[in-house]
Automatic annotation (TrEMBL):
Family, similarity comment: Belongs to the strumpellin family.
Gene Ontology cellular component annotations, sorted alphabetically: endosome; WASH complex
Stated name of the protein: WASH complex subunit strumpellin
Entry-linked Pfam families: Strumpellin
Alphabetical GO biological process terms: actin filament polymerization; endosome fission; endosome organization; regulation of actin nucleation
InterPro entries recorded: WASH_strumpellin
Domain of life: Eukaryota
Amino acid sequence: MLRIINVKEEVLVTLEVIADLSYAWEIIDSYTPFMQKGIKSDPSMVIKLRATFLKLATALDLPLLRINQANSPDLVSVSQYYSTELVNYVRKVLHIIPETMFGVLARIVELQTTAIKEVPTRLMKDQLKVYAQLDQRYEVAKLTHSISVFTEGILMMKKTLVGIVQIDPKQLLEDGIRRELVSQVMRALHNGLVFNPRAKPSEIVPKLTALGKVMDGYYRSFEYIQDYVSIYGLRVWQEEVSRIVSYNVEQECNAFLRQKVQDWQSVYQSRAIPIPTFPPLDQASVNFIGRLAREVLRVTDPKTTVYVDQSNAWFDTKSHVEVINLSLFALLRKSVGTPGLTGLDRLLSFIIVKELQGVLRSLEKGMVKDKSWQELLANMSKNLQPVDGIVQNVGRTYSAALTKVSKTWSVFLESMLKIGQMQILRKAIAHELYTTAKFESKDLVSALQTTNDAVLAEIKAHHRDPSKPYPKEDNPLLMELATYLDWCGLYQPISKIYVTTRPIGNLPLFMMLFTVTHLAKFTYVSSQGGLLSKRGVDSIDGLPFVLGSFTFLKQFHQDNVTQFLAYLGQYVRSLLEEGSVSVAKFSDASIETTNILAYLEILVRHCNVSRKVVLNYVPDYIFDQFRSSS
């Protein structure tokens, strides 16, 4: 005690200077490899490093000294900053544990996917030796034990207060595992989804199959070790895979946005668990989700393939060989999961929006602002009145307009085919999501359907009687419900509104002329129940044409669809009326009306158009004749 009393102030200052570890703030990083090497060889070394981390906390004293003396309100924020920097360094040092764990896990993945056979539900006694595989199972057990040793090592470090931030070793371990998982999965997706656009046949099926095996290996092994590392493996897996896909979809969709979401602005990016980014591998796509979407679009291009609705498959137009079928979407689910399917669907929606915006611009320039077009359509609209009547001279009334449409709107046709193609893909994705959700979570799907029906009933009741309640703007119900419905495939792509539009005069008449013009390029094949392009004509596909043209019409007021059907019905009735005069005219009329009736049948079957509405314009007996003759 006497000695302590006699300690001079200079000695105290000297001790304080020596004990201050501020000088180590910059050079400590050079010791990181040695610390990590020690942890790797002996995980219990983490307990000793706890003292080092606590000592490093004294480095915070010097920067905070003057701020504290001045009683500045910035003390908390500055302390928070330096404490966070120190915690990040601790994360960096201890990241060797999850990194090593995943190195061991890679071997477990290999053993579980290639070496160890899955034991069947019922096993015959004589097959017991075959499925035992004792050596391989012993190796898996040994590797699992080494993982649990690393887990035990990091959990030995109790909760530690570093500056004003508390370090929870369990949370630190989970964050480290999440970080390594994100890195591994992102690398697998980046390397696995690279396609050669000139490859015939497409590489998409073998690539997705290989990626599916890799992802399944990670999933099964992660599920296997979750109890040994004391984390909720399934939750971590679903959250991180969903975050990876959502981030990449967001970055890919930036190409379609005016205000782009930068990496640092993304809600899916994290400093503690960053999603790695890779340079683009082609000019069109930013990342793997873009490459995947464009490969699917290339494989199902309506110029080179035909979609046969009865087979749910795409066939090559020249060789008539099946290119791809609905099993592709099951493969997509196995390889990129439900988040990947939902992300792909969202990206396709953005591409549809881009196509529709381009169509509207070209229509505005080429038809709305063109006086000759406006005069032609206005005069024709007068000549066709009343719409529920019959046109006496079909050839003279329609020929000039039909010829003009066929010569000037080739770009419009191309966009309609692209939109229709993407609508078929979106319907297939929705079907895969719905069947998966129905199988894996029947109660959730039923609850969502009931909630959706109830909300729609209340909204309809409000529109009938405004005094009844309606969800307010700040109510998150509609937004959250829509997200759940999208993830479970409970939506109809054809019924969605993709762009806001202004009214366009005589649009239904123009669309009727456009439809009739291009339907002449098709022939109805009753055995396939669809429209196929005629030989010698440009290769175009029937179903994408129908869905694309209807999607475009759907963006406008619903009266446009009704008026469009009225014009089509009038044209069919007029053709048949004129065809009844002579055999030659009847032959030409029957071919043309067959295509139009097939078009209307597809609208009823695929586009949620009520048959009752169609029958208002085309009598039922005409459809009966069409069905009996086909």
